[in-house]
Design a protein that fits this description.
Largest sheet of chain B: 2 strands, antiparallel
Number of helices of chain A: 13
Structural class of chain B: mainly alpha
Number of domains of chain A: 1
Strand content of chain A: under 5%
Number of strands of chain A: 6
Number of strands of chain B: 2
Largest interface: A-B, 43 and 41 residues
Distance between the termini of chain B: 37 Å
Structural class of chain A: mainly alpha
Strand order of the largest sheet of chain B: 1-2
Order of helices and strands of chain B: HHHHEEHHHHHHH
Helix content of chain B: over 70%
Shape of chain A: globular
Largest sheet of chain A: 2 strands, antiparallel
Oligomer: heterodimer
Radius of gyration of chain B: 19 Å
Chain lengths: 344, 286
Amino acid sequence: MGREFAADAATPPRWWWWMFILALAIVLVSMPHFTDDSLQLDLSITFVLALLALSMSFLWGYVGILSFGQTIFFGLGGYSYAILALNAGTTLWPFAAAIFLPMIFAAVLGYFIIYGRISDVYLSVISLVVTLIFEKSIRSTSGPEYVIGKVRLNGQNGIPGVPGLQLPWDSSMQLSIDGVFYLAGGTALLLYVCLRLLLLTSFGRIIVGIRENETRMELLGYDSRVYKLVAFVLAAGIAALSGALYAVWGNFVAPEMFNLNQAAQVVIWVIVGGRSTLIGPVVATGLVQYFSNWLGTVSIGQVTLVLGLVLLVFVLAFPRGLLPTIAMVLGKAVSRTGNGNPRS
Amino acid sequence: MDQVATTVYLVIYAIALLVLISLGLAVIFGMMRVINLAHGEFMMLGAYVCVLAGNAGAPLWVAATVSAVLVGAFGIVVERLIIRFLYGRIIDTLLATWGLSLFLVGGVTTVFGPQGRSLSTSFGNVSFGGLNLSAYNLLLIGVAASLAILTWALARFTRFGLIVRGTMQDPVVASALGVDRGLIYMATFGYGAALAGLAGAVLAPITGASPTMGLLFVAKAFITVIVGGHLPLLGTLAASGFFGAIDGVVSYRWSSVLGEVSVLVVAVILLRMLPSGITGRIRRGL
């Protein structure tokens, strides 16, 4: 059963995986009829952040590149949408541009890091450094001279009053709470399915091959740099989409989007969920979000303290992540009873 | 003329600061290949120890020494509890030290509160060739230079340094020759941590001590050591010189944030042209 969710399953998913997706879709569609607005808002932001987790687990799980920089594109996506939408007074093409612009930036940054053939570890560190410097630069733009078009960047305080997404057929109407919920949930589900099916394409197999053995792929004639760069840009696009949706959801962008804590949370989602699956990080996003909200309410202490501890414990004790560890333990228990499937 | 002199002074000062904040990382990351994202937090701990000791009445040099010793000891504990299990799993060291860094930020915030603390010192100004220079900044330049020389001499001339270099080059052969590998790793990590603690301590009179101050340093330190390349000491010094010059000039002309951005941009472009760092072509050395 584990194979349907694994990040290296090159076989088409079986019927019950499609049933699983269908069930999720049905739950998603019917949810607004049973829940109140506040739960829907909470779930929407979880979906938005799950997209961010997907972008990272795609890059890390499929290609083996750990980029701390997904928050760069998350933040850039949010800021691009805010600035363009406030300037233009319309929201549809700014939303598209908010995905596209960070991808261009990712292509430039990725070119410099990936084409130098420096090791993947340096990519992690450099992406982290870029995040730090982005946050610092945005924070320093509080003065009135930092204006793009007619929007003040406002430094620390962020940009308030970002418009919600207008309906394509009626620009006087904005997306309702239900609409944002459907958009975020639908996109997350759709991208999950797309990324799973990507493994069936030759591109998907090549990037998994690069993760397993880059030298061998090069000797087979694939220029691994091209594939890594494309994957990096794709992941940036997903993160930017998540950032733009975040701005739509909260009507607000702030330098915290680039924050190191934000970056740490993404890593924690992926680690807790297990990077060898795509669904794990998505589930973990919900769990960790719920957990840190709960921590905030009971005020045991600093949330960063607990997050740091979680990260440490997982790296030292459960490096494969929660879901794969559970699957492994279950698999062992099943095979001990003598009727286990050795493949799972 | 004054303008030139001021610029030169600022550049030297910027270089000294870079050397100071990246030397500990050069030992831990450059020599041991352990990516220590908690480097900034080691400096933060050093600053806290120094500020607390200083405000309790200890003279600055005593406070700084205490910081170096305590943070060094803390580094040894960290190595035994966490890093020891992760040698060779470089991505995992990165994640674990990041967890450690968040944990330390959270812990210090819980204990001492989120607001910063400052340490007042009684250093005046020195007039030199028509320039009015802060005596403490001159002291910092001296500390940076002597720490760099000390580390170099330790690695180059002592038996301990020889064993450390040998162990880092080939741990298997080193332990076959009777070296206790674990002990050497532990001591080297502790030395790197002590350097970071000392750096945080001597910077404390300027920056104060606050839980998130590590973020100010960690970006610059990593850029410097990565661009330095595979010879940790020479590379770090060369990269410090190069980036210090850029940072000093840009910060002086425009703003310090812009200085940092320009250092980053130059570093990324440099890594494309020299993927193995400034010292990539040099075979021998430290």
